[in-house]
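Example: LysR substrate-binding domain-containing protein.
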Amino acid sequence: MNIRQLEAFHTTIETGSVTLAGERLGISQPAVSKLLRSLTEACGFQLFTRSGGRLVPTLEARMLAVEVERMFSGAKRIARLAEAVRNREWGEVTIAAPPALATLYLSNALSPFLAEQPDIHFTLQSKTSPRIGELVAAGQIDIGLSVLPFDHPNVSAEVIMRFSMVCILPAGHPLTGKQVIEIDDLRNEAFISLFRDDCSLMTIDRAFQLKGVQKRNRIEVPLSETACSFVANGVGVSIVPPFVGLDYPEDRLVRRTLLPETFMDVWLLTPNGRPLSLASQKLVDFIRAAVAPFDQRDDMHRSLQ
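Written out as structure tokens, the predicted fold is:
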């Protein structure tokens, strides 16, 4: 008993005709008949009888056909899986990103990609940047997005975005009359600040210190999106990445350019020494496109020329 015999048997059962089976398989009718005869000998019982010129499977053949159908269905699933892997439509991908990216922006940005790739199992973790580097180095995640570089022999690091922080104000705040907010404008404003271990807070505090301005922290929150909520409710002002708070309308939250510009980088961290899966590679390409609207590296390059 071999696969070619079973293929002839399966196709004959499906088509109900040796001639049609031969056409589907691309072989002659006598060749199909020969395969069926050899399978009958291997089984030791009759597979088909003739009735009114038609080929009718015996009870034993119908029992055998159930198992053969399962075998060919499994082969088809394997073929579909191989095609999906080849087309990067299947796999498991785990990403870790800082809360500012993971809380809302990445879920919105990556949803179209994931909707078109239903066979990809996707996990998104919210971690601090130092922890993200450690997870990539240990091979526990496939892709890391970090606002800090990570120097490790097991990690490949590449800047994929440089963004400038923006100032957010409640609608109706006196400073909304200005198109550009300077650090000095925030001298006496109630400030919604992130926790002290947040990497962006260090960048913001440094900007205030360089201008000699004392930041008046009123509320500390764990997430930039939480800061946006407080600002939208009129409790204070804040400074956040440009991809945060995008779902708030201007009648609740106003975004303004901040001077001096306060830049931060986003690093793409991947395991060094083992290739990314096809699904991970495709997702990396999509992430590059998702962050491109906020990438100011080209603008900085042009301003220096």
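The chain has a mean pLDDT of 88.
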